[in-house]
Task: inverse folding
């Protein structure tokens, strides 16, 4: 559905659609650059929290807004946003599988899919950011407390943002495919109508 070749319909004359543009190395490396930035920010903020706030300690950078935003150093043994506690190793293994799948998908994508590659980079960086936590300490450090919601971290934010961006990009491609399909059908119908209106094209044979 995402591949550009599905967005270019064949003309009514039967000419095959143009081959999709091949991605250059700049495009292929984009998800990995995004991944590196996400991991750097995620691990850097976690290091600051782990070294400056005791476990389950709290810091309110803006005391007047403590009810809706504060930093709480917590240990998460579950998934994103603290869900499914006690299943950390399962999600560690899942992160590896997801990372491999994302890397392979990125290398097979045609050119021009910048937003999709950005989404993949966010998901890859988030998954590996939390994976690093599980490897080095057996749990994920969560610290962003935004009121009546789960406590989370920047890796969680990257994963969710990547999923949302992927969904938006996928929806846009579906809309483009539908528009291209309708245009191709309309063009074919118009050509057929013109051919019928023109009548037979063969000239009579003189005897």
Result:
């Amino acid at each position: 559905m995402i591949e550009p070749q599905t967005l270019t319909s064949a003309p009514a004359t039967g000419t095959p659609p143009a081959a999709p543009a091949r991605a250059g190395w700049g495009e292929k490396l984009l998800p990995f650059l995004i991944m590196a930035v996400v991991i750097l920010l995620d691990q850097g903020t976690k290091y600051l929290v782990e070294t400056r706030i005791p476990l389950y300690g709290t810091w309110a950078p803006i005391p007047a807004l403590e009810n809706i935003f504060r930093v709480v150093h917590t240990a998460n043994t579950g998934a994103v946003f603290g869900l499914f506690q006690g299943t950390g190793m399962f999600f560690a293994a899942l992160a590896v599988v997801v990372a491999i799948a994302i890397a392979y998908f990125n290398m097979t994508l045609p050119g021009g899919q910048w937003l999709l590659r950005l989404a993949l980079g966010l998901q890859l960086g988030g998954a590996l950011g939390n994976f690093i936590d599980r490897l080095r300490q057996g749990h994920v450090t969560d610290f962003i407390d935004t009121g009546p919601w789960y406590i989370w971290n920047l890796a969680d934010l990257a994963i969710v943002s990547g999923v949302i961006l992927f969904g938006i990009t996928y929806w846009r491609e579906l809309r483009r495919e539908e528009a291209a399909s309708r245009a191709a059908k309309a063009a074919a119908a118009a050509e057929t109508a013109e051919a019928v209106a023109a009548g037979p094209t063969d000239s009579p044979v003189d005897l």
Summary: Confidence is low (pLDDT under 50) at residues 4-12. The first helix runs from residue 25 to 52. The radius of gyration is 26 Å.
